[in-house]
Write a structure and sequence with these properties.
Largest sheet: 3 strands, antiparallel
Radius of gyration: 15 Å
Order of helices and strands: HEHHEEHHHH
Helix content: 55-70%
Shape: globular
Number of domains: 1
Distance between the termini: 30 Å
C-alpha cells in the first residue's frame, strides 16, 4: 500500500495530475497493479479499499474517456491533466489495463467496465498493426481467439 498510495492520491503525485500517463508497457503494469491491490483490499481490508475506490474509478473513467480509440484499443500515452492523447500509436499491451478494469467489474459490477472489455475484445482483431509489431503475431488466427475471449466474457 505504501507504493500504491502516492499513485492514487490527489495532488501532484496522483496519476490524474501527471502530464503524461503511458498506457503501454510499465504504465499498464502500474495501473493493473493498482487494480489488483484494490481487489485484494476488498477482501482483506475493506476500509482501505474504500479509500482507493473513487480515485481508481476516476482514473478508469479518464482512461476510457480519452485513452481509447473508437474500437476500445488504447493509445500509447495520454495527458490526464489536459485530457488529451499525447501519443496516438496503439498500445499492444492493452490487456494489462483491461484486466484491471474487468477485475474492478467483478467486484463492483459496473456494467460500463464489462462493456468496455467486451468492446475491445470484439474489435481487437480488426487491428493488425502496431509500432512494435506484436499484434500481428498475437492475432495470426484471430477468429478462434476472438471467439474464445467473447465466450469467456459473456459466459462468466
Amino acid at each position: 500500500m505504501k507504493i500504491a498510495t502516492p499513485f492514487l492520491e490527489t495532488g501532484p503525485q496522483g496519476l490524474e495530475q501527471m502530464p503524461s500517463l503511458r498506457l503501454r508497457d510499465h504504465g499498464g503494469e502500474i495501473f493493473a497493479g493498482l487494480c489488483e491491490l484494490y481487489v485484494t483490499l476488498h477482501y482483506v481490508d475493506a476500509e482501505s479499499a474504500q479509500k482507493y475506490k473513487s480515485r481508481l474509478k476516476q482514473l478508469i473513467d479518464k482512461i476510457l474517456g480519452i485513452g481509447t480509440n473508437k474500437d476500445g484499443l488504447l493509445y500509447d500515452e495520454i495527458n490526464p491533466l489536459a485530457g488529451v492523447v499525447t501519443k496516438s500509436s496503439l498500445a499492444d499491451t492493452w490487456g494489462y489495463i483491461y484486466n484491471g478494469i474487468y477485475s474492478l467489474y467483478l467486484i463492483d459490477e459496473n456494467p460500463r467496465y464489462r462493456q468496455a472489455v467486451q468492446k475491445v475484445l470484439r474489435n481487437s482483431t480488426q487491428h493488425t498493426e502496431s509500432t512494435t509489431g506484436t499484434i500481428p503475431r498475437l492475432m495470426e488466427k484471430p477468429m478462434p481467439l476472438k471467439a474464445l475471449c467473447i465466450y469467456i466474457i459473456e459466459n462468466q
